Amino acid sequence: MIDDPGADRSAAANVDDVNTAIDVRDLRCSYGTFEAVRGVDFHVRTGELFALLGTNGAGKTTTLETLEGLRKPSAGTVRVLGMDPYEDRKQLHRRAGIMLQESGFAGDLTVAETVRLWQRLSSRPSDADSAMERLGLAHRRDVRVKQLSGGERRRLDLLLAVLTKPELLFLDEPTTGLDPESREAAWQVVRDLLADGVTMLLTTHYLHEAESLAHRLAIMHEGELAVSGSLVDVLSSERAHISFDFPSGVALGSLPSFAGEVDVEQLHAGQFRLRTPDLERDLTAVVQWRSAHEVSLRRFRAHHASLDEIFHRVVDRDGDAERR
Ligand SMILES: Nc1ncnc2c1ncn2[C@@H]1O[C@H](COP(=O)(O)OP(=O)(O)OP(=O)(O)O)[C@@H](O)[C@H]1O
Q1: Stretch 199-208: mean pLDDT, rounded?
Q2: Which residue minimizes the CA distance to atom 3 of ligand 1?
Q3: Is the CB of 300 under 6 A from ligand 1?
Q4: From its record, what is one biological process in GO terms (predicted)?
Q5: Are 154 and 178 in contact (CB under 8 A)?
Q6: Which residue's CA is the closest to the ligand 1 atom numbered 30?
Q7: What is the mean pLDDT of residues 263-284?
Q8: Using a 6 Å cutoff on CB, does residue 66 contact ligand 1?
Q9: Residue 314 domain-assigned?
Q10: Do both 67 and 12 map to the same domain?
Q11: Residues 208, 124: one domain?
């Protein structure tokens, strides 16, 4: 079952401090009279990657900045590594890495000079050469930052965020502007950090990125969490698909009668599709029916819903409500 955001609130009351890196309860943030974040609850477990997804202007960056200690909440409580991020900002920043949406580098410094400066500021610098190599910046080490492309700057942002060996990492749209190869390299860096036990909170507009990396996630819309839960639970909340070309010479009525809320649709060009809440059960039924009739099912596909579909359901539901 998908988590009900309200249920996460009551669950938060039982969140155990040792295994919880971030605990957010009824968070509200306003800009003047405009409330950008409207009562958000979630927690991030130690060692997991939690993805915060959402539409433009949903309140993701505002939430992230609050957790990073850059913004004081209007209401609610936030604990990050056991600290109040706003009050204990200095202490928090010794243990957490932050990759903002926009960086503020000195453009006249080279990549290597920027990295050295960063290392001097850090109490726990890590090996910059191997990180530069992994992020494809080694050959750009003597180039001035202002001469880097947008994607190279983004990779430098990530490099600096991981350089201090943080135990918690905030990543605000880390792969925006990266080409597919650089994005894959960035994901590998993230996977390596996860393997080292680093906790991460990621915002992204790339749903595939969240599907590839996240243990748990939430989708934010207009300041609220519309859904949250483990990746598996969120994906299972929408019906799965089974589709194939309906074989000729077999009567439609010979199909098994599917129990529960199964939609049966005939699409164009003989394509047949089931949308089912129980993929395993109905896949078994289709395979048995196919064997009994000794037919082959061309263009056969069976898959869970994608994050894309869940995302659109959240946004469309709201659009539908507005239109009514
Ligand atoms: N400094 C500000 N002053 C007034 N309103 C702001 C300010 N910063 C953000 N907002 C508003 O708050 C809302 C949430 O913005 P936020 O940047 O947190 O959204 P987001 O989910 O990160 O969006 P995006 O995906 O487009 O980056 C938006 O309506 C935005 O216009």
Answers
A1: 93
A2: 31
A3: no
A4: response to antibiotic
A5: yes
A6: 57
A7: 84
A8: no
A9: no
A10: yes
A11: yes
For ligand 1, atom 17, the nearest C-alpha belongs to 61
Q: How far is residue 196 CA from its own chain's centroid? A: 19
Residues 83 and 120 in one domain: yes
- Counted domains in the chain: 2
Mean pLDDT on 196-206: 93
* Closest residue to atom 7 of ligand 1, CA basis: 31
Q: What percentage of the chain reaches a pLDDT higher than 90? A: 41
Is any atom of ligand 1 closer than 6 Å to the C-beta of 166? no
Atom 24 of ligand 1 has which residue's CA nearest to it? 56
> Nearest-CA neighbor of 222 among 65, 74, 36?
36
Task: Please state, in angstroms and as integers, the Cα–Cα distance from residue 323 to each residue in 110, 203, 225, 313, 320, following that order.
Answer: 53, 29, 21, 15, 5
Same domain (yes/no): 169, 117: yes
Which atom from ligand 1 is nearest to the alpha carbon of 101? 27
222 and 270, same domain (yes or no): no
* Distance separating alpha carbons of residues 84 and 279, to the nearest angstrom: 44
Strand, coil or helix: what is 254?
Answer: helix
* Residue at token pair 């350089």: 163
Domain containing residue 106 = 5-235
Question: Model ipTM?
Answer: 0.97
Could you give the dihedral angle defined by the CA atoms of residues 263, 267, 272 and 273, in that order, rounded to the nearest 10 degrees?
-40
My answer on whether 275 and 195 are in the same domain is no
DSSP string, 169-212: EEEESTTTT--HHHHHHHHHHHHHHHHTT-EEEEE-S-HHHHHH
